[in-house]
Amino acid sequence: MGVEFENRYDFALSFAGEDRAIAEELFRQLQDAESEVFYDKNEQHRILAVHIEEYLRPIYQSEARFVIALLSQTYPKKIWTKIESDQFKERFKAGDVVPLWFSDAPVGMFDESRRVGGLTIDVSLPINEEVERIVSILLRKLADVRQPAATTPSQLRLPT
User: Fold this and answer.
1) Across residues 125-130, what is the average pLDDT?
2) Would you say 102 and 72 are in contact if contact means Cβ atoms under 8 Å apart?
3) Sign of the CA dihedral 35, 39, 42, 47?
4) CA angle 96-104-98, nearest 5°?
5) Residue 71 pairs with which residues in a beta bridge?
6) pLDDT in tens, 94-104
7) DSSP of the chain, one letter per residue?
8) Chain centre distance of CA 40
9) How far apart are CA 123 and CA 105, in angstroms?
10) Residue 36: is its pLDDT beyond 90?
11) Is residue 34 predicted with pLDDT exceeding 60?
12) Model's pTM, two decimal places?
């Protein structure tokens, strides 16, 4: 009997097209670690001939345990990232969105996202090494939420 999880995806990636190389490396490494990841290019066959906004809405609203937002300089300029972020913006409060700030994004950009913990992608370093570091942290976060609640002494039943 396999383990069942509440969410269809462990992670959903939200990124600008210019950042596809980083998104693809993130997808590859997370998938290699046996995570379920929504990555648009990997699911083109499911998106064909359907209303894309309607298809994406539930993924970003609830079907992904975490949304990973790759916040580069181009992210706020794209229509699809706007559509995606409209679907997950309320999830910041629940701790379900992990912002990845690009080191070359101007100070002050994404101020709202700075209210939650996130990670910085140092664009001056080799991308595969940066992604490897980030994936390691993401997998630890995922493992934490998958752990069953610890049993406190008051919850234990002693034999009578």
Assistant:
1) 95
2) yes
3) positive
4) 5
5) 101
6) 999 999 999 99
7) -PPP-S-SEEEEEE--GGGHHHHHHHHHHHHHTT--EE-GGGGHHHHTTS-HHHHHHHIIIIIEEEEEEEE-TTGGG-HHHHHHHHHHGGGGTTT-EEEEEETTSPTTTTGGGGGS--EEE-TTS-HHHHHHHHHHHHHHHHHHHHSPPPPPGGGPPPP-
8) 13
9) 10
10) yes
11) yes
12) 0.85
78-87 contacts, C-beta under 8 A, 24 or more apart = 78/16, 78/17, 80/17, 81/14, 81/15, 81/16, 83/53, 83/56, 84/14, 84/56, 84/60, 85/14, 87/56, 87/57, 87/59, 87/60, 87/61
Q: How is residue 9 written in tokens? A: 């995806």
Could you tell me which residues are beta bridge partners of residue 100? 70, 119
**Strand pairing partners for 69?**
14, 99
Q: With 60 as the cut, is the pLDDT of residue 148 above it?
A: yes
The three-point CA angle 135-58-95 to 5° equals 45
